[in-house]
Structure formats: C-alpha cells, structure tokens
Amino acid sequence: MKFTFVTLFQNIVEGYFQDSILKRAIKKDILQIEYLNPRDFSDSKHNKVDDTAVGGGAGMVMNPQPLCAALNALKSIDEDVHIIFLTPVAKPFKQRDAKRLAKKSHVAFVSGRYEGIDERVIEKYADEVFSIGDYILTGGELASLVICDSVSRNVNGVLGNSDSLSVESFETSLLEAPSFSKPKDYEGNCVPSEYLKGNHSRIRSLKLVLSEYKTKFFRPEQFIKYNCTSAMGFLPKETKR
Ligand code: SAM
Asked: Does the 2-152 domain belong in CATH 3.40.50.720?
C-alpha cells in the first residue's frame, strides 16, 4: 500500500518511519511512502504557498495554486489515489476507518499549516476529511501520521502476529482486557492468579469480565451500548462467554 504525504514539512513526517514496525514494513515493500511539497509547485517568484485571508482575519491561509498543481500531478500519476484532508472541523477518525482505508491501494494525506487551507481546494479534491480530535494542532502532519500508523497496522503483513488485531480495543464494543508481562510478582503486585493456571477457557471468561469492568470505567457510554446489544442477544462472537 502506498501513502503520499502532501506537506510543506517532509522532515517532520520522515522520522516516524525510521524505526520499528513501519520501518520493517517499508523494507519488505509492504508499505511505500512518498512525499509531495506544494512549494515545489508554486508558480510565484519566491515559491510562496500562503497569503492573507480574503475578508480579513488573523494569519495566513494556504492558497490554491501550489496545492492544486501538486494534487493534479498526483492524480495524473494515479487517478485512483484516495485523497484525505486533515482538518479539526471534520468527523473524528475511528478504528473502523482504519480498517476500511487499509483496503485502498494508495492514500494521500494533505496537511494544512498556518490558518488552514483555502476551502475551495478541499471541496475540489477531498475524497474524505478527518479530524483526530477536538483540539488545534499547528499543522496536519501529526494528524496524517496518526491515521497512517493506524491504517498500516491493518494492512496484511505489517504486524508480525495479526491475531493481536482481533482482540484489540475498538474491534468490538468492549475494550481489551488488561495485559500483564513477567515477572508474575513485581514488587508485591501479582498478576491475576487465574492467568497462571493454563485453563484457557477460564482465562477467556476472566478476561471478558475484566474487559467489561474496564469499559465501564473508561468508556461508560460505550458500556451502555454493549449492555444493550448483549441484552438483546447480539453479542459479537468473540465476546460471548
Ligand atoms: N484555523 C483552523 C481552525 O480553527 O479550524 C485551524 C488551522 S490549524 C492551526 C492548521 C492545520 O493543522 C489545519 O489546516 C489541519 O491540517 C491541521 N490540524 C489542526 N488540528 C487538527 C486536528 N485536530 N485534526 C486534524 N488536523 C488538524
């Protein structure tokens, strides 16, 4: 799968791919990462990419010409590229979006800077828009990386053990049960004894109870949804006791 980052600040993005799982996936050619800098497409004398806001207002806005030229170039190479704009006003990105986008062959992320991107560019080129939360970042690069990372985990072959995906939080209405590592006793705090007895059916049952407690504590609104579905007998298969 290919990701193209349309950004004025390639350096901010590049570092993320230089370690760990995504680095390995790139080495194995499961993921390809490319960059496109709108500044390289500017037809102004000093490669300007922004201007003052028409109608007044603080700060600069990324103007259409360099971005449109960059996106036209991208589409001329791959007309199927799925173009995502990052903006704090859009719908929030969710796990189900990560799974859906992992089936695409090429996703491009367009990062805004300054006060954002001229709305006409978004209207013309966006296949989709996403926010990563109700707060304002300096630019779209971090938001693009968040989405890229989460989509990549769902691309076949990226994770060593893809089983881990199916039990993760947000795969069902319950959050994942707490995880423990070794030693069994760390400074007097022991892992739940049931985890040590090797009875997998009992461990599964305990994990389900712990998942329910965890969801109720951290995500009460999600727990209400879970309670309704289980009461109606619609428990997802993997959460059935
Ligand atoms: N003036 C804009 C507003 O109030 O809606 C905010 C612009 S922000 C300083 C600059 C860029 O950062 C945006 O164009 C967007 O690409 C990115 N950005 C900021 N916060 C974001 C968020 N929560 N999710 C996704 N992108 C975000």
From this structure: no
First to last CA, the chain: 37
Entry pTM: 0.92
Residue whose pair of structure tokens reads 């922004």 in the numeric block: 50
Output the CA angle 51-55-59, nearest 5 degrees: 40
CB under 6 Å to ligand 1: residues?
86-89, 111-113, 115-117, 131-133, 135-140, 143
Residue with CA at minimum distance from ligand 1 atom 1: 115
- State pLDDT tens for residues 186-236: 999 999 999 999 999 999 999 999 999 999 999 999 999 888 877 665 555
Domain ranges of the chain: 2-152, 169-239
The fold of the 169-239 domain, in CATH, is: Trp Operon Repressor; Chain A (1.10.1270)
CA–CA dist 194, 191 (Å, integer): 9
* Residues 156 and 105: beta-carbon distance below 8 Å: no
Residue 6's closest CA among 89, 73, 93, 102? 73
